[in-house]
Design goal:
21 strands, alpha/beta, 7-stranded mixed beta sheet, Nucleotidyltransferase, domain 5, about 15% strand, FGGY_C
């Protein structure tokens, strides 16, 4: 470090916590980091932030925006302290977020859940990316778009997700009109946090393109919105429309209030918001055509750039400038990866396995991986579908659910664990084949995220896909990617490509595919594909029927409980 060095701060807002990292602009060196968990985590059963603790229906996932501000107050100063730098040498800050994560706010950016009259209303809170309760609304968007031949629909693989801005907005409109009418803006959390930092509101080109159905300079028109609901025609004009900032732009400058939160100099550049997955590509210096970056954590997002525009069935979207200016950025994804492994470890592993892992001082995941690694490919006799949290690509259907086929009384936990690992690799291969068959060749996998630590899983992905697999050098890829964008916003580099070349790093070809293993996995992948198409393409809709039965059962149960509840009596002195 020298007195002439400058630094930027990247803040990655994940599903359960926010992470801040201090990065040196001349070479991308990470000098300090800190993480702060959200106090309310994810509210998917009860509205724990309100005194009433209202029970939430299935498929809901809410958060508290104040938890995001606490990350700025806590993690940023701690990261700067850990870096041992002079805060005066910080020239910019940038953030990234899970998406699509939406907040209803007033005209000055106040979240409606922070208003006393709406504190007990679930629709007043943040709808996290994995809020899937808007699936019926997404279905209607898709149906009407197909009927009308909307030109933008193929840009999203032919299907709009329940996770996105319009589906969640339509759900809000139809289920709580008072909240909808009270909100002045329907804001991506990625843009809201930038608003809090820099004092200016603009939508970033990434989320507006991928999650906001913005193509060729426009959103779906008012005629389409009216076809969804006669009173919904003003949604874009009244609730969504705002200036669009390009990635790497300075949207504002750190306000005095935000400077007090963070301990950073007032007036430094605040970059446009971004999505955690997309911002990771520069951190790995993987911004070239054919380099598919997998950000692997609770879910996986697959992002690749190309000079050409193609329509890929089941992709989440293709956006001009959505990742790097001047190229088309393509996105696909898997709704559950690490979440599936975590679900099995927390619900399906016998106590003796957990005890043995503890005795050896390793995680249950590591112990199961060690046992699974000893097996020959196909030795467990199982095949699984990775749909425990629905399917994002290539089927784009949150109503699908998981399958583990082939179990016997001899099946062991490590067998199931390995089958689940394999299922996610097969899901990625399915996505890759959709791209390559559509004219977007994939030549290299680049992996970032928490699952990098599982070397067995990384080799499996190389073997299943038959592609070389490179690994990002940073354990904080999104935060470093944000710091790279902050350096561009601060004027240290002219554009993101130049900043990525200096500040982004990866180990090229860290894992190479083994031809014999690839051939063995081909047999299992063929079985995966048969199941994938059987359950996922309409031949057997049992998964959807079961979800309908589940919802109806809960609705009936709640109705019975409501009828049985004692009537509220008012004391005479209060009546």
């Amino acid at each position: 470090m020298t007195d002439q060095d400058t630094y930027t701060i990247g803040v990655d807002f994940g599903t359960l916590s926010g992470r801040a990292v201090v990065v040196r602009t001349r070479d991308g060196a990470e000098l300090g980091s800190a993480e702060h968990p959200y106090a309310h985590a994810v509210m998917d059963r009860n509205l724990t932030a309100s005194p009433a603790r209202t029970e939430l229906p299935p498929e809901w996932a809410l958060q508290v925006p104040g938890d995001y501000v606490e990350v700025l107050r806590t993690a940023v100063p701690r990261a700067v302290e850990a870096a041992g730098i002079d805060p005066a040498q910080v020239v910019g800050i940038a953030t990234d977020f899970t998406a699509c994560t939406m907040i209803p706010v007033t005209t000055d950016g106040t979240p409606l859940c922070e208003l006393e009259q709406f504190a007990d209303r679930p629709h007043a809170y943040v709808k996290l990316w994995k809020h899937h309760a808007a699936q019926p609304h997404a279905d209607r968007i898709n149906e009407i778009a197909r009927e009308r031949g909307e030109a933008w629909l193929p840009r999203y693989g032919g299907l709009i997700s329940s996770e996105w801005q319009f589906a969640k907005g339509l759900q809000l409109f139809e289920e709580d009109r008072e909240i909808y009418d009270a909100m002045d803006r329907w804001v991506e959390a990625a843009d809201w946090i930038v608003w809090q930092l820099g004092g200016s509101y603009a939508r970033n080109a990434c989320t507006v393109g991928y999650k906001g159905i913005h193509q060729d300079g426009a959103h779906p028109d008012e005629d389409f919105l009216t076809a969804l609901n006669p009173d919904f025609g003003g949604f874009v004009r009244d609730k969504l429309d705002a200036p669009i900032a390009q990635l790497g732009d300075a949207v504002g400058h750190l306000t005095a209030e935000a400077a007090a939160w963070t301990g950073l100099p007032e007036g430094i550049a605040v970059a446009a918001g971004n999505v955690d997955a997309h911002v990771t590509l520069p951190a790995a210096n993987a911004v070239g055509n054919g380099q598919m970056t997998l950000i692997m954590g609770t879910s996986t997002c697959h992002v690749v750039t190309s000079d050409q525009l193609h329509e890929v069935p089941g992709m989440c979207g293709v956006v001009d400038g959505g990742v790097i200016a001047g190229t088309y950025g393509y996105e696909a994804g898997q709704s559950g990866v690490g979440d599936i492994f975590g679900w099995f470890v927390s619900t399906g592993v016998p106590a003796e396995y957990t005890a043995e892992a503890e005795r050896r001082g390793i995680s249950t995941h590591a112990y199961l991986t060690e046992l699974a690694e000893r097996q020959p490919i196909g030795g467990h006799g199982l095949v699984a579908l990775d749909w425990h949290n629905g399917n994002r690509s290539v089927l784009v259907d949150t109503e699908l659910s998981g399958v583990i086929l082939g179990q016997t009384l001899a099946t062991r936990p490590e067998d199931i664990y390995r089958a689940l690992l394999e299922s996610t690799a097969f899901g990625t291969r399915t996505i890759i084949e959709a791209f390559t068959s559509s004219g977007v060749p994939i030549t290299e996998l680049v992996v970032a995220g928490g699952l990098l630590k599982n070397a067995f899983l990384m080799q499996m992905y190389a073997d299943v896909t038959g592609l070389p697999l490179s690994t990002i050098t940073s354990t904080q890829g999104p935060a470093v990617g944000s710091a790279i964008h902050a350096a561009v916003a601060a004027g240290v580099y002219p554009d993101v490509r130049a900043a990525a070349a200096a500040m982004g790093h990866r180990v090229v070809g860290a894992y190479q595919p083994n031809a014999a293993a690839t051939a063995a996995y081909d047999r299992l992948f063929a079985e995966y594909t048969r199941l994938h198409d059987y359950f996922g393409r309409g031949e057997n809709d049992v998964m959807k029927r079961l979800k309908t039965i589940r919802r109806e059962a809960w609705e009936a149960s709640n109705a019975v409980e409501a009828e049985a509840a004692p009537a509220l009596t008012v004391p005479e002195d209060l009546s």
